[in-house]
Every structure is written in structure tokens, then in C-alpha cells.
Write a structure and sequence with these properties.
By secondary structure, the chain is of the alpha/beta class. The protein contains 22 helices and 16 strands. About 55% of the residues are buried.
């Protein structure tokens, strides 16, 4: 079993050439002096600014910051960003630092598009967001940038865009989770009842609206909240600002402090450019934190793309090796019953970081917006009796059913494992799966879409032990949508006592839950992956505990891959605009990146 140091050294060695090229790129990038820009350029850039700022900024006498915002009021997590730019500007101007909103990126909600055509452009929206970020920063008039984003593809897209402007100091500012509503367990139960026809649509809608009921991030530990853990451990937030609820005095105080702190840091040159700040050790820390908390499997795609944006090469072996040495310290839904509000109250990420630091499972010689090391991230923001912002250390867990110390974890290893064999390579989130469901040997039932499986369930064709193979769902095929519509019917079948598992080249993300699912199968069917060779009736050995995934058929290697017509997926819901991205997507283990340049 590799140590953290060995894993990190492997990544450093593997990334030696590309990391040097990246650092050379940002270090030698011409820093355009605004005073040297043509008069017309300056006039366009500063037309909306107050007269007293225009001359100072054009002569580089005043630091000038960008805001890249993903605000809209469809996404509950992003609605609070509506008022952030004004508050940020108010705080920065006190330090004689000016701010402009440089661009607004698109942002979509997977929860809204789930199971429908729009979900097929979701993954690619990450790269559109990265490009939108680049558009805003391409004006080259800024000394640093704030990034406002929370949800699934938005933060990875913002990070990729920010790292391509790696010569700029950067700070990410979250909005926080909505207050707790109906429990996640009650929501899941309602969905299973609906799948069985025991709950009507109106009652299901009432249940869902009690769950998703306010402004802020969804409260389960899916990709959005995993994003926040990742950004915190990368040191791009002020400490433990991720899980402070929106529209509270504490949230406003944290926002104002973050804006002022960053403005001062840029002015004093005390905050490193993001491309220098984020290094191989930072990326390893992000993987450790995700494993220790049972984070989203989506980051086995996104973190790879983020790392590549700054010249660092990681793969699923690294995730697997880190998972083996990282104890699971948190139980947050779908890995447990608690939501992220309860996680934060129990000590949250501050306590997790403290435990990992004290047991040498994080690199502490990293840079953050707070300076050198991660000690500041073991503190949480609170309001004192005078309602002033203070940061206090977290010394113990307030609820050991939610967070435990390093020496008595929920599991000795992390939440995500690599599975591989003659079918290909896949990842599985084992932290939410019971031990008796980690192994199954059963016949395959092959489906070429999510809809085919749901129809078979509705026709009562799946009342048996089986392994569902759902293929032609990868990036090159249909954009790699999340397949969460599969979870309620498969969950119902498991409740009936049937042994089953899922293998797919689609995504399942951080809310995968109790169904054993080998996901992100690579190579995908559309790229000639062996998943396209599987036939209904083939016996498959699915061994998540030992990381094995094999078809037990003597002729398997010599079979031809099935091919299907996917042209209908190229039209409607704007999918026709994304065909070029789809046709150029890299393998999922390489980040499903749709553009070149790194």
C-alpha cells in the first residue's frame, strides 16, 4: 500500500513536463499594464466607473478586481449571488480597490434536467463555463478575481477558467446550503413509493418541495457540496465559509470579511497567483478530503480536468491509492442520515481537517489565500456576543454519529474505489453501499438507455438477481448524463431481496446511494469500449471489495462491439449546439475535456 508521500511523488514525477510548461506559461505571460493600453481600450473598459477611479486605474495606481458570477435565480444555490457584487464592491472600495463584474457564466441545475434531454448537455456546460470565465478575464485589465459559484459543473468550470489565468490571485465565494427541510431519507422513500405506484405525482411533488424549499445549496452531500469541500481544502475560500446558510447575519459578515481580506491581499501582494498556489500537494489534499468525507464520484472526472488545467496529471489509480489509506470520518447523506447543516454543526470540515493534519494525512506545506498551511481551516466563523465575526477552533466532534476522529472512523478506507477487469475501468462509491452488496455474480441484462431499464421495471421484467448494463451513455455517445432515474426502481428491487448491481458508462454522481454501481466505465461504448461487447445472459463477476469487474465468457475478448444509432440525441434542447464538443470529448478518465490547449 502506497503512502501519501509516495502517491504525491508519483504525481509530481508524472506531471514534471506539463507542470513546468504551465508554470513557464503563467510566469512569462505578459502582464499588460493598463497605462500602456490604447486610449480606446481604456475608455471602453472604464466607461461605467466613477470619474475619480478612471485615471487611477488606467495608470495602475489602483488595484482592480474582476467578479466572475454564475448568478441566476433558477438555481437555489446561486440566487443569493444576486446582491454579492454590490457588497463586494462596497468592501473593496474601502481599501481603495475597485471591482467590476467581468462576466456571468451559464449555470444549470442537474436536478431540474434529470432524466430529460437537457441533461445531455450538463457535463459539457462545465467547459462552456470555463470558456465563459476566459471571455471575462480576456480583457486583461484585472489584478485578481472573485469567483461566485457553487453547483455541480459550475465550480469545476470556474476553476479551469481561473487556472488558465493562473497569473492572477483568485478567491472563490460560496452562498451556503439552504436550511434543513424534509429529511433525505423521507425524500428517498417517497421516490421509491412513487416508482411502485403507491404515491401519486401531487403527493410526490409536495414531498420534493418540502425537501428543496429555500435559497441555498441542496442539503445532501452531492457534487455541489463536494465542490465546496474541495475548494476549501484547496485554500480558495476564507476558512469554513462553505456551509454557512444564506441570508443570515453570519453569512453577510463572512462575505464582507472575504471581500475585504482579498482586496487587502491583492494590494499587499500577500496572496499568490492561483496557478502558483495550486500544486500537486494541493490536488492530493483535495482527493484526501473527498475520500475522508465520502464525496461525489463526479470529481473522479472534474478534479482530473481541473488538475490538467494547471499541468498536473492524475488518474483513477491515484484516487484508489488515496482511498485505501484515508479513513472515512464523516457520514453525510447519501452515506448517512445527516445533511450538510448537521455535518457543519457537528464540527464539519474544520474538524475533519484537524484530524487529517494531526495524523499526517494532509500536506501542510501548501499555500492558501490565508497564507502557508491549513491550520486556519481548522477554525469556523461565528458571531460573538457583539455580533462581530470571530474564528474559533474546533477541538472535538459534537456528534460521533456524523463525524468521528481518525482513530475510530466509520471505515478504514475512503469512499471511492477503482474497479477494473476485462470490461474496462470504472469507479464505485462504496461508502454508501452495505458490505453484503459489494459482491455479486449474476447474469447481465443489457440496456442501451436509462429509459429501457425503467420500461423493463414497469413491465415487471426485472424481478430476479441480475446485473444491469446501461451503455452508450458516455460523453461521446450522449454527453454522459447522470442516470439517477435508475435509483428508485433498482432500490425497490433491492428491497424485495434481489441481488443486483449496475455497470454503466454514464454518470451517477454524489447521490448514488445504496445501489452498487460501477460508473464512468472507460473506455465508453461509443469509443469501442468492451462494455459494447456484453450480451444479455453473460455472467458478470462484480467484486467491489477487491476492485474486480469481469465478464466470465471465454469468447469475450474476440467479440465485435455493438453499435447503435444515436443521431436522435443530436437534436433538441439545444443539443445540436453541443455536437462539436461531444465529438471531441476525451476519455472520461482524462477528464472528458472537450477543448485543447493543455
Amino acid at each position: 500500500m502506497k503512502t501519501l508521500k509516495q502517491i504525491t511523488n508519483d504525481i509530481i514525477l508524472r506531471s514534471n513536463k506539463t507542470r513546468k510548461e504551465y508554470l513557464n506559461f503563467i510566469e512569462n505571460k505578459e502582464k499588460i499594464k493598463r497605462s500602456n493600453l490604447a486610449c480606446s481600450n481604456l475608455a471602453h473598459a472604464y466607461a461605467t466607473l466613477d470619474d475619480n477611479l478612471k485615471e487611477k486605474i488606467s495608470k495602475n495606481e489602483n488595484e482592480h478586481l474582476a467578479i466572475i458570477s454564475s448568478y441566476n435565480d433558477v438555481l437555489s444555490a446561486h440566487e443569493p449571488f444576486k446582491d454579492y457584487p454590490l457588497i463586494i464592491k462596497q468592501e473593496c472600495i474601502k481599501d481603495k480597490v475597485s471591482v467590476q463584474v467581468a462576466s456571468c457564466t451559464p449555470s444549470m441545475c442537474d436536478g431540474i434536467t434529470q432524466g430529460y434531454d437537457g441533461m445531455e448537455i450538463s457535463l459539457f456546460s462545465r467547459d462552456i463555463i470555463a470558456m465563459s470565465t476566459a471571455v471575462g478575464l480576456s480583457h486583461n485589465i484585472f489584478d485578481g478575481a472573485f469567483f461566485l459559484g457553487v453547483c455541480d459543473k459550475i465550480v469545476p468550470g470556474l476553476l479551469i477558467g481561473a487556472l488558465r489565468f493562473g497569473h492572477l490571485p483568485s478567491m472563490f465565494i460560496p452562498s451556503g446550503p439552504m436550511p434543513s427541510g424534509l429529511s433525505n431519507a423521507q425524500k428517498s422513500k417517497a421516490r421509491e413509493l412513487f416508482a411502485q405506484g403507491k404515491l401519486n405525482k401531487n403527493d410526490l411533488l409536495k414531498t420534493e418541495m418540502q425537501m428543496y424549499h429555500n435559497k441555498g445549496t441542496c442539503t445532501f452531500y452531492g457534487t455541489a457540496n463536494s465542490n465546496q469541500v474541495m475548494v476549501e481544502i484547496l485554500g480558495l475560500h476564507t476558512p469554513n465559509s462553505a456551509f454557512v446558510n444564506p441570508n443570515t447575519k453570519l453569512r453577510e459578515k463572512v462575505l464582507r470579511y472575504s471581500a475585504s481580506y482579498f482586496a487587502k491581499g491583492v494590494k499587499n501582494n500577500s496572496i499568490l497567483p492561483i496557478g502558483q498556489m495550486i500544486d500537486e500537494k494541493s490536488i492530493v489534499n483535495a482527493i484526501v478530503a473527498l475520500m475522508a468525507t465520502g464525496g461525489s464520484t463526479n470529481h473522479t472526472i472534474h478534479l482530473i480536468a481541473i488538475a490538467r488545467a494547471c499541468g498536473i496529471i492524475i488518474n483513477w489509480d491515484d484516487f484508489n491509492d488515496i482511498s485505501k489509506i484515508t479513513p472515512l470520518l464523516a457520514k453525510v447523506y447519501p452515506n448517512g442520515s445527516a445533511d450538510v447543516n448537521e455535518f457543519h454543526k457537528a464540527g464539519g470540515l474544520a474538524y475533519v481537517i484537524k484530524e487529517l493534519l494531526e495524523n499526517d494525512l494532509l500536506h501542510n506545506d501548501v499555500n492558501t489565500v490565508m497564507g502557508k498551511g491549513l491550520e486556519e481551516y481548522t477554525k469556523v466563523p461565528v458571531l460573538n456576543k457583539n455580533e462581530e465575526l470571530e474564528y474559533v477552533s474546533v477541538s472535538k466532534s459534537a456528534d460521533e454519529n456524523i463525524i468521528r476522529d481518525f482513530k475510530k472512523p466509520f471505515s478504514p478506507s475512503g469512499g471511492i474505489n477503482l474497479m477494473q477487469g476485462n470490461i474496462g475501468r470504472a469507479v464505485i462509491k462504496v461508502s454508501a453501499v452495505s458490505e453484503d452488496n459489494l459482491y455479486i455474480k449474476a447474469p447481465a441484462i443489457v440496456f442501451n438507455s436509462q429509459a429501457e431499464l425503467i420500461k423493463a421495471f414497469e413491465n415487471n421484467e426485472l424481478n430476479k438477481d441480475f446485473i444491469a448494463v446501461v451503455r452508450f451513455c458516455g460523453p461521446r455517445a450522449i454527453g454522459m448524463p447522470e442516470l439517477h432515474k435508475l435509483i428508485p426502481p433498482l432500490g425497490v428491487l433491492m428491497q424485495k431481496g434481489y441481488k443486483l448491481a449496475l455497470i454503466t458508462d454514464g454518470r451517477m454522481s454524489g447521490a448514488s446511494g445504496k445501489v452498487p454501481a460501477a460508473i464512468h466505465l472507460s473506455p465508453e461504448a461509443q469509443m469501442g469500449g468492451n462494455i459494447a461487447k456484453i450480451k444479455t445472459g453473460d455472467i458478470i463477476e462484480f467484486d467491489a471489495a477487491n476492485g474486480k469487474l469481469n465478464v466470465l465468457a471465454d469468447d469475450f475478448a474476440n467479440r465485435e462491439c455493438d453499435k447503435i444509432d444515436l443521431n436522435k440525441h443530436n437534436l433538441g434542447s439545444g443539443r445540436e449546439l453541443f455536437v462539436t464538443l461531444k465529438n471531441n470529448a476525451s476519455e472520461v478518465e482524462h477528464g472528458a475535456i472537450t477543448f485543447g490547449g493543455f
